[in-house]
Amino acid sequence: MELIVFDLDGTLLNRESEISDYTSETLQLLAEKEIAYTVATGRALHSAKAILEGHRFLLPQAYKNGVVIWHPQQNRFSSGALLTTDELDHIVQACIHQGVTPFVFTLEDGQEATVYHPPLQSEVERRLISNLGLEGNIRARPLDELPADAAITHVNAISQAEAIEAVLHNVNDEPYLVAYSGTAWEGRQWRWLDVHHSDATKGGAIQEMKELLGIERVVCFGDNENDLSMFEAADESYAPENATDEIKSAATAVIGHHDEEGIAQFLRERFDL
User: Fold this and answer.
1) Which end of the chain is more exposed for a tag (fewer CB within 10 A), N or C?
2) For 70-114, what is each residue's pLDDT tens digit?
3) Which domains does the chain have, with CATH numbers?
């Protein structure tokens, strides 16, 4: 039995961050042929849930680059490597030193729970609150109320590119932390930051899903550096035309552009849909 694993942004989703009608039809054809598929994404569940709804994503799903696995049938999370208090302190201090507000995400009783953060410093951070869904699904609390025994999954931030680069440089000196960054929706002068424990990876998550589901082979799709561990763990790995050069070099093959139905077209040929 094979398991297909999709990255979302820049891979399964188009430039509007949506599943196109053609891709939706392709997923339906996979489901009808009982070909298993799921996602491994850098997104959190609350930012992906509406996108995936109605597209038969019923199997365990990896979020925050493998930090947590969501089990939709049981309506619960299981967590991988969590951040320690010392690691969190290092991240928070690195952020604050650069004038960046860290958003600290936690789990409680197997569910997404509370996000803790110091006072906001810019309008773009206030917009991040809305973008992350913190005004509805998840509670936001002051950072100084963070419990000593909190299960800390990851830290997000958004700021000017120069400040984020400085935080990245500081955080990446820590042996058990991994940090990713990219251009934010406000424009090239703004960048997002995502930091989590180095033991949590997409590759580790799909290995866990293979064991949970009794899967023999994995076919995966991804476009960026956070997909490398998944490519290493998979039996086949495919990069869309828009992927980074590093991902293309690691892929089994390079296929069509994510915004030109490249993944869906490949699936229809590969699985004779």
Assistant:
1) N
2) 999 988 888 778 899 999 999 999 999 999 999 998 887 656 668
3) 2-80+200-270 (3.40.50.1000), 85-197 (3.30.1240.10)
